Amino acid sequence: MRLFIAIDLSDAVKNQLEALRADIPGANWVRRSAYHLTLRFLGDDIAEDRLPVIRKQLELVKADPFELSLRGVGCFPSGGRKPARVLWVGVKSPPALQVLYGQVERAVLAAGFEEEDRPFTPHITLARLRLPRVEREVSRFLQRYEQFQSEAFPVSEFVLYSSVLTPQGAEYTPLLKVPLRG
Ligand code: 2AM
User: Fold this and answer.
1) CB 19 within 8 A of CB 167
2) Atom 21 (ligand 1): residue with closest C-alpha?
3) What's the number of domains the chain is made of?
4) How many whole angstroms separate alpha carbon 85 and alpha carbon 52?
5) Ligand 1 atom nearest residue 37's Cα
């Protein structure tokens, strides 16, 4: 199974993200229903019999609910030396998000996964780019939405998702929702 842990966004914020779609040749814009903030990608070949332990550890996570807002846009890879593959919206990262990330990471290690070796770079993927030589459109997009700010939205749970890759894109199914209540 392909599994990841994410935070869902409010409808109002999803509306704001949809409005950022721009005319970039070869861009695959993420469907509204698939917008999310990944806390932790667990892997794409996870044996189903590990699910009970993963669930148990995630249910032990204790963290407070908090508010989040999104800010600015960017691309991966960044820096402009290599062609951008992903366009994203950034997160105004409050300490509570880092705390939740740390708690989730602890749970994931307790469930037998390896430590994440990349730093946590909270973002919401807006589009995946397939064509090279769209630098001009990409830099126009980045400039245009440099000052983007979403409204704040409450984060009161996190979600374990399974992801199935189909020709129409990834299908995400929530397997577990863990409420945040301190
Ligand atoms: P992305 O949004 O930056 O593409 C489901 O695929 C989620 O897990 C996506 O949000 C994706 O991040 C993330 N993801 C997919 N593969 C990953 C990997 N190898 N490492 C970290 N995150 C990954």
Assistant:
1) no
2) 41
3) 1
4) 35
5) 10
Q: Per-residue pLDDT tens for 70-92?
A: 999 999 999 888 999 999 999 99
Instruction: Point out the catalytic residue in the list 107, 123, 158, 159.
Output: 123
The model's pTM: 0.95
The alpha carbon of 166 and the centre of ligand 1 are apart by a number of angstroms equal to 15
Name which residue sits closest to atom 20 of ligand 1, judged by CA: 41
Q: pLDDT higher for 80 or 51?
A: 51
Write the CATH number for 105: 3.90.1140.10
Question: 123 catalytic, yes or no?
Answer: yes
Q: Tokens 């550890």 sit at which residue?
A: 57
Q: Domain of 57?
A: 3-179
- Tell me the CA distances in angstroms from 32 to 9, 15, 144, 147, one per residue in order: 10, 8, 21, 21
Please tell me the distance from the alpha carbon of residue 33 to that of residue 169, in angstroms, as a whole number: 12
CA 12 to chain centre: 17
User: What pLDDT shows up at residue 132?
Assistant: 84
- Active-site choice (36, 75, 87, 122): 36
Q: How far is the CA of 49 from the centre of ligand 1 (A)?
A: 22
